[in-house]
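Q: I have 305 residues here and want to know how they pack in 3D. Can you give me a structure?
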Amino acid sequence: MSDLQKQRLGILWFRNDLRLNDNLSLDKTIHLVKEKKVDLVLPIYCFDKLLFEGGSREAQLPKLGPFRRNFLIESVENLKEKLQKKLNSNLCILYGEQDVEIKKLIEKIITENPGIHIEYLIASREVPSDEVDLENKVKKYLDSKRIKIFFLWDNLMIHPDDLPFGHFSKTPDMFTHLPTFSQNDIVGQSIPEKAKITESPNSAILGMKGGEDQAELRMQQYFFKTDGLFKYKTTRNGLVGTEYSSKLSMWLALGCISPRYLYWKVKEFETMKCSNESTKCLAFELLWRDFFKYHSLIFSKKIFY
């Protein structure tokens, strides 16, 4: 059977983008289906063995504590549920060294499904050096199999192509040296809309549970129900309770909610209620987040030594 007669498969690899809303990789995959470039889609997620069992590069400290580990598992479980309910799809969950497991999966599909041709792999791009090394390993293998790949910038508020100073390598060394610009003009618009590895303490004990649904609930609670955003600047360094800061960073880290989406929700709050130093401050913190991500791209492994 020639490749032209086979069903074309697109593999959607979820990484730190564990959401359906405002997900560029998912959006790209849907466009490939609509353009009739893909007939079938296989969403996958791989729990990284090195994250669960390995240690840090120098001190060999655990990379995941019990609460963060369980938060990740909850987030993947929520993603799987949402794929089933909203897209009538499933999530193929793997465990191991990610590049090795992806190779195994692809070889299995090729061997056991002669009527399927793997056309694309679509995933978000990352900035830390280990994740970039992983992308390069996967890309090298996919190139050898002539599988097309899309790595998309999806965890940044400001896309590299929209930076006011050109290439990300020109990011100033100091945040205060960033040129003045209107974030509204360059922040991309957001897109409209259980594999338990090990036993862990329940993160719900802390009132915070993983997943896109919980991220949305927290944002709505802090922004629009308690008006916590209204006083964010004056309370953000508190230590007691749940409402002194947004608490959204843990969901942002796993991509359960996107920085672009949060930025435009801040703008919605300003339109509906008020604009003050606190609303500007939270948007500013999202810019800080991008600043450090771009520096991670520039300095690569040097950051971790």
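Q: Anything worth noting?
A: Residues 194-205 have pLDDT under 50 and may be disordered. The first strand starts at residue 7 and ends at 14.
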